[in-house]
Amino acid sequence: MTPATFLVRSVRKLHVGSKGWYVEKLKDKGVRHYEGRKIEKFKAHVLANLLEEKNKPTLNRSVHGLFFCVISPFTIDIRVLKIIC
Q: Where on the phi/psi map is residue 81: left (φ > 0), alpha (ψ -120 to 50), or beta?
């Protein structure tokens, strides 16, 4: 990619939620292919679902419990929610 091409791509204005916008966001995350096909071949709603899937936080398997806080008017109770790993 020449520097001029890179400059054009970096200042390109895309409509948020358009197919091109989803393609650019997925490429920024390193996704070029999905199910053996280039991402440019998919419709916008498929790319939207794929981007949402890529943005989900992953669960660290080494964590065996999550702390959460239950606040009532009188006490604060901290409990551990066990996660089946």
A: beta
On whether the CB atoms of residues 23 and 39 are closer than 8 A, the answer is yes
Q: Cα separation of 39 and 53, whole Å?
A: 14
Instruction: Decide if 31 contacts 39 (C-beta within 8 A).
Output: yes
| pTM listed for this prediction | 0.56
* C-beta separation of 82 from 65 below 8 A: yes
The string of pLDDT tens digits covering residues 4-47 is 555 455 567 888 889 999 999 999 999 999 999 999 999 999 99
State how far the Cα of 46 lies from the Cα of 53, in Å rounded to an integer. 11
